[in-house]
# Entry
Amino acid sequence: MLRTSTGDAPIDLSAPRRAPPGAGRPRSDDDDRAGLRRAGGAAKPGSAEVRVPKVGGDKSRGRLTLTNALEADAERIRSVAAFRRRVQRMSGNRGSNEPKEKLSREVVVPETITIQELANRMSERAVDVIRFLMKQGQMLKITDVVDADTAQLIAEDMGHTVRRVAEADVEEGLFNLPDDDGALSPRPAVVTIMGHVDHGKTSLLDAVRRTNVVSGEAGGITQHIGAYQVSTPSGARVTFIDTPGHAAFTQMRARGAKVTDIVVLVVAANDSVMPQTIEAINHAKAAKVPLIVAINKIDLPDARPERVKTDLIQHEIQVESLGGDVLEVELSAKTRLNIDKLLESIALQAELLNLTANPDRPAEGTVIEAKLDRGRGPVATVLVQRGTLRPGDIVVAGSEWGRVRALLGDTGATLKEAPPSMPVEVLGFNGTPEAGDRVAVVESEARAREITDYRVRQKRDIAAARGTSGAGRSLVDMMRDLKVSAGRKEFPLLVKGDVQGSVEAIVGALDKLGNDEVRSRVLLSGVGGINESDVTLAQASGAVVIGFNVRANKEAREAAERAGVEIRYYNIIYDLVDDVKAAMSGLLAPTRRETMLGTATMLEIFNITKVGKIAGCRVAEGTIERGQHVRLIRDNTVIHEGKLSTLKRFKDDVKEVQVGQECGMSFENYQDIRAGDVVECYRIEEIKRTL
Ligand code: GDP
# Structure
């Protein structure tokens, strides 16, 4: 036995050691050769000889003093580390898995992160992260990028907390800083014209501009950019933007740019409501932007404006002349009839909206279109939304920035400044931004660079992350499933009613239902019959459609049947709410309650060919029932849980056996039974929970 230098753990060194050659071999009696052996090992005398002169020198002696000193005692003491290694080896390498005081860290997770970086931030080994991902079916390398959701999942699984930094605080304060009410002044309304193809959008835009020019507005006639400002007869100004379609409109909205204040819906009086008209209505509704209906082409002999109005009701657009609140103008873009009236309606609607912005602040806006001009470089048409844009300002848009070289108005004239709602062409960007990018003026080039660098990086990382998770998708899927199973369940609904009041009451009542586990989510609510697009929406989100005092039209009924969407009709709100409550209760996980029935002790085990093992038991307490759950207990340890498959008394199958009686039992999918095992029989009741 020997004591280590630490002196606290005696170990036995008599067993063969596996120390490095030379370092830990028992001393030979020849001292000189010891140094030699140390260097090369006895097994290789040749090489050892070569090294003799080197190793045998004073220098190496100096290096060996410690060992020599220890060896001189004829007892060798290992280093503490070696000792620890040995202990680890002996205990089956448990050391590496030994919980080393696991530290839970707050891990800062940006939008995307490489596995290496994530591992570093968690102070975990990257291989552990990769192993975790492998278990989820994802094969990733240390340099691969994962998105924030995945990173969060990994970090939380490894016992860390996560702090997600949204858009790495670089962008903080760039947009939407609040203004004082006092600083706000009125601004022109921004109008988008939408409608079905060939219903006259372009002609109307044209007519508006020409009318305006004719009415004495200075400037050229040629439209310079995809947006322009006109004056209404009453003197208010209105900005028209020429978006390339509904999709672009909604896409811009999706990117956080609410550009339009009012949508003018062009419907040709000879054609009435067409698919793109409906689309436009939906887009405008989704954006919560008020509509003005322009019934175009009334100069045509087959124009039937009344039909347009009635058709629109189906899509919940009730125009003023039919008692609704949507302004409508019957006009002709071709003959420019009633264009003034349209402008007045816009002005009226704009007044209702009370549109304001603070002109005295750094400008903010949205890129409406952008192109690379041969002579002028990148040119972006920007709608200024707040503040005032001036030449010399440093602007950031998407991942591009620049110093404003010149501002050009809709007629091509150079401007000194662009106040809110003014569309301008901006020259001076270093690259071409994208339509829909939000524009902001920043205080310095450095800040502009910081933001754009970050965005470029982010774009690249997001693309990379999408690439990797796109391949397997399993993690993403898993996360979603996880959210579904662990998080709150949602009960999606579409509510249509006869009047706004009852719809609101229903939505209000439904909102109050629910608890931590389940809640209702009204995807869409509105007044009017249930139509096909409601059903499509319901299908897409797995929702139930509820009609309160309204019915589905034929197309909707058929679509619902095809898609398997449930439509329910009600005329009493309480019934409706009760039903939804009951349905939502179905989403609550039931509570399981266990009732003990009885116990039995196995006396003897019979092995019956073809049947398997049968336990001969005596019921110790209560009753044993066939088909119920059983638990097998051996030495107070549960060894199996399952079901009782047969229960016999003598030769007969019985349903239950009472206390004190003997019986034979066999178990579903379990054979390892022994005399002395205890059988516990219990019933599980699932208790439905209600809200
Ligand atoms: P867009 O596809 O919606 O932009 O429609 P356009 O503005 O290109 O117009 C489609 C067609 O309808 C063109 O041939 C126009 O001349 C015609 N059009 C537009 N407005 C009127 C109108 O008020 N009356 C008549 N008769 N034709 C019109």
The domain at 366-456 is CATH 2.40.30.10 (Elongation Factor Tu (Ef-tu); domain 3). The chain has five domains: 108-168, 186-356, 366-456, 475-585, 591-687. Residues 195, 197-203, 296-297, 299-300, 332-334 surround guanosine-5'-diphosphate (CB under 6 Å).
